[in-house]
Write a structure and sequence with these properties.
The chain has a single domain, classed as Beta-carbonic Anhydrase, Chain A. With about 200 residues, the protein is α/β, with parallel strands linked by helices. The two termini are about 25 Å apart. The protein has a 5-stranded mixed beta sheet with strand order 2-1-3-4-5, sandwiched between helices. Helix 5 crosses helix 6 and helix 6 crosses helix 7.
Length: about 200
Amino acid sequence: MSGQLTPDQALTQLQRGNERFVAGWPDHPNQSARRRREVSDSGQQPFAIILSCADSRVPPEIIFDQGLGDLFVIRVAGNVLDDIILGTIEYAVEHLRVPLIMVLGHDKCGAVTAAVQGVEVRNHIQSLAEALRPAVESARTQEGDLISNAIDVNVQQAVLTLRASEPVLLGACAAGQLRIVGARYNLDTGEVKIIA
């Protein structure tokens, strides 16, 4: 599927799927036994990469009304970006020719909230808080709700990092083969809005 869609068409497909989900009329495409066999036999051709939070309330395949083989989903608390995740994204762009990357944050993100509160812990959760610290510090300079602002800044910083990543992502963007956007999911309405 990815070879048939431009970056803008891929974004439109995500947005239409989200509109169906919000309206309560999802199509549940590509979820049949036939589709399962098809992607098993012919491999995967996702049309979008979604870097999303691991929060159980934000499952990309459901909120975008997509099915097997449609999305290349990477989920991690706070939708943080590190070298392993960047390598995973580069693989999908370079080898699967995925034309769209979306960094997806969401309301009431527990990881961002914990980073804002600055509670020191003595386990691996501290690594997550450290990864979110630059977004939190940048958000402190903005007016409004600190947690909400930090959620948006975290998405925006990841988008900027991805757009500047050489050589794979920067090159694909320059060639018009890739678009990178940031978005935020509203837990109450189900709506996804582009913010970067």
